[in-house]
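Name: Acyltransferase
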Amino acid sequence: MGKENSKVEILPFAPIEDEPMSSLTVEKTKVTSTDTSPPIPSLVSEEKTKEVGLQPTGDTRSVEERNLTRHHPGHFRDDPVGFMMQMGAFYQGTGWRSYKNYIGTRILYEGYTEEVKERVLNSERVLYMIAYLAEKQANLLAQTIPNATSKMIARRKKLLEKELQAVANGMVDKLVADLNSLRFIRLFGFFVNNILVRMYHQGVHISEREFLELRRVAIHAAQNSQSLIILPCHKSHIDYLVISYMFFRLGLALPHIAAGNNLDLPIVGRILKRGGAFYIRRSWGEDQLYGSVVKEYLEGLLERGHNIECFIEGTRSRTGKLLPPKLGILKIVLDCILSGRAKDCWIVPMSIQYDKVIETETYVNELLGNPKERESLWGIVTNTRLLQLKWGRIDVRFAKPYSLQGFINEQIERRKSFDPNSEQQKITLLRALGYQYNSVSVVMPTALVGTVILTLRGRGVGRNELIRRVEWLRTAILAKGGRVADFSGMTVGEIVDRAITVLKDLIKERKELLEPVFYAEKRFELSFYRNQVMHLFVSEAIVSAAMYTKIKQGGAKSTQRLHISTLLDEVTFLSQLLKVEFVYQPGEIEINLENTIKGLIDDQVMKLEGEYVLLSDRERAIGRENYDFYCFLIWPFIETYWLAAISLFSMTPTNSPQPTTTIVNKTTSKKPVPIIWFNEQDFHNKCQIFGKTLYYQGDLSYFEAINKETLKNAFIRLEEVGLIMVKRSRNTKVMTTIALSPDYIPTRNSEGAIEPKGKLWDLVERIGKFRREGKNRRDNATVSSRVLRLAEIVGTPTTADVVMTNLMSRPVKAGKPEAKL
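Structure predicted for Acyltransferase:
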């Protein structure tokens, strides 16, 4: 039997700090499955049927915090003696640094990695796949060889099996984490501790109560050879270091970290692998052997109770907004539990929030369409300039862990027709699991200050007013069930001053006035912090934007109200338009709208007069500041979708020679309609240039509206509803092409200019109703002529707008729209 199956020793509870801990004890009762909570509150679900939901885990506001790096010197010159003592303690393994009695299945012994590789390569699944693929290839080759004998085919099959075995060996070598050396982990722990202490000088903070619950579940899981599935949000490369450091620091078995193979770089890739990382391709398509190797490795880890860490968003959030989960790893975990190979595992949603994320400047460059910089965690941790800066603090939170098997059983019990083996219901269940990191996210002071500054009218804000609005936002977040970083003993003013210090390159101060005035110096970069609170107020933001269609008209109160049925129509349209961006609360839209309006009435933002909704008298008296807050949150996203829609006019066919094909339009006539196909990436780049031009000419209010991530989501949505057609190939060398659906192709007047009418223009107008009003956009005729003229320039074909011969040689039929906006 391998050493990893040795009995787990549970030691008495040890303090997580070097100083005494509060008198909290760990119950060693059996852990049972818990009710877990639904995806984040929002407005409307994609489907009006009941979806899998998770119940709230209780009040989490009053938490006692611990700073894991307190009293740890980060600089030799600041405290030479303390620094050397700290280094010696890590090297010798003093106290918690010994890491010999961690909770969980055994790792970190000589030969661990080779044992895992041998099990994967000799598994029934991998051997079967090798034999199957070899036989398949041998039979295909036999068809090309005249008079092939059975012996020849058998020899060929045997040779192919050896080749595939070598391929599998290479896959396993790249895949399996190298958790062999305890000494390396101690040195790595010292290295990461030093980095975190120097960069985030105010510490790494956790909730003591949450840790105690996690530790209790970890003990139960270890005693039953069950895994912890760590599901953190992903905002920075530093996340990898923080999580591994925390598990080392708190005495839990290090997780095996699922990482993209883009991080398998020289030096840093090897270091991360020795710290628990295993590298997976972003996609493996039809590579059946690779899929078998990955599944066997992951299921083997689950079967033996090893902890697994999966960044479920799939990539770092460049916008600061929580991303929809990628369900690939979770699906393997779920299938493993359903098959019975692993009896159970424990889901641990986790949130890592930073006062300041070090990559935000890089994110802005990427979102503006500049070439993506090569991933370089090594570049971050060895950058002496970054290490000298003061980035504030890190807050880590854990949701209450819950049993996956218990959750599945609960769904079967609650929904008699629920079949976890159904692929569709399995996806529904996975989505519910995947969004749990939303509920545990903590809003940092920098996010509070950044959000307030970007949601106020005017060029800047005085300190007193800033403090007042931050206090309001903090209260609003807590009322929505959100979490705010706890700064015990600090006043709101001190918190604001501290946040402005951390964001000093993004927020500037004018001191030569009657009072200090703060203003956004880098609005695009600051929007990263604003978007961190967006998920809490999506419902209110959508309703407020819908109301804006009337409120912006001004005049008497009677002209600024909206009938409840009209409001429902507008909210439904916006919710459907933005469904790729946000997560909506399960349930009927009518009920969700009713609950949202009730909340806004309780907050004295809106009121009801009969069947009409309008702003409350109190909200008008305070200058619409709370109503404006919700609008300012969502306007940049509406701007992006308007930009995506207006850019489609550039696809309008002209009389000049261009790469075209024909399509039969069955919905209107049988006459072929000319279609222009564009290179997708080139078109997206042109769209960003188009957006920059509109911004500087005053037709676009928000520079962050041109970011490529939100634009990409907008084009995905427009494809889903049938406005555009996309041709993709599994061959990565074949360019993806994009074209306007024939039903939405605009007409031209006698002079050849695009006319502002038709189905596409109607959609642009519909989206435009919700946009923030500006003086450049009051005259619709002027706007249409100016914007459409620029769209013509965008549509000028370039050498990149090439269509493959197979796309040009046959007509293409337009598919039916999947949904209507």
